[in-house]
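Subject: complex prediction, re-run

Hi both,

The earlier run crashed halfway through, so I resubmitted it with identical inputs.
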Amino acid sequence: MKIVIPVDEKTLESKVCVSFGRTPYFLIYDVETKESIFIDNSAAASTGGAGIKAAQIIVDNKADVLLTPRLGENAAEVLKPAEIKIYKTITGSAKDNIDAFIDGKLPLLDEFHAGFHGHGGN
Amino acid sequence: MRIAVLSGKGGTGKTLVSVNLAAAAKASTYIDCDVEEPNGHLFFKPEGVQVEEISVKIPKVDHELCNGCRKCVEFCSFNALAYIKNKLIVFDDVCHSCGGCILVCPESALTEKAKVIGKIKKGVSGEVAVWTGVLNTGEATGIPIIKKLLNADNPQGDQLIFIDCPPGSACIVMESIKDADYCVLVAEPTLFAVHNLRMVYELVKLFNKPFGVVLNKCLDEENPAEKFCFENNIMILCRIPFDNELGTLNSNAEIAVNKDKKYRDMFSSLLKTVLREVQHETTTNP
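This time it finished cleanly. Structure:
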């Protein structure tokens, strides 16, 4: 099973990035092999639709699970048909969140925010 | 003759100035290009309003023909397309209607379909033709509505046209001032306003438009916007005082020009100054 997390830095100790679509990197963690891969998020610099493109990258990397603090509704639309399960992260490092997920302590993320699309947002 | 009224930020008085200029000019056309929040109609209360829906072309997928090559997904600068589980998904709200995906599709799996993004309302208020653009909430851009508003046949074509622009200096403002003969920049006496005035100042210079500034909400104390005009040799067309009476009229959606002679005189004088400037401009830079 492959877990994907948006991260600020290319380490397991990195914080989880507050933005899914515009995170600089994704950590892909393989639960079976315990292998970590960091990929650049080519969607980060998008003019628009970063969430859609980032979600496409997640799907193309054959992720099973996404751990993220929040997610836009367009990205959710992409991940839904790909049957990727989405869980909400807690405070702490990427590693803390992987451990919490494996222990079944992360809640499912089921509320998705509307797109900002140039209207600001926080 | 087309006179565009713009400002870097919202709330400086674009609508106050453009509505009152049109009312002072009497036989004229007022065009509200602030399609995200048009409010000029609140003042004019136009009658006989005719509504026309405005639509753009967005892609429609034929899933039978799509072979999943993803050329369209890679092409789209706005990421309006995704290819998930052997199926192409189009995000209508993210699409900017460039038509590129349809051009790059080697399988002709994409065709165009119309999507309504807003409307244009045309009515009359006394001698003023009042045209309003309305963009539906959540749409990517109001530019198609502005294009339609500014390119429409105008039965009063030889009369004065006042364009109430959207705030800011982005594409939507460029579209609104593109064919203007003169630009009126409205600014408040705050540092924030100067920052935004500088943005529209650079914009009108880039577009090589003749322009002048209206200083609104003027107080007795120092006016940073006025200072900016002095420093950059920008013509000050008019100083509108910070005036409770004018503010109250405006808040009640009254047209000040029609309510009080002193405001009629003020905006008539501004109109005269603007017309003189345009005349001067066409003589010196034909």
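The mean pLDDT of chain B is 94.

- K.
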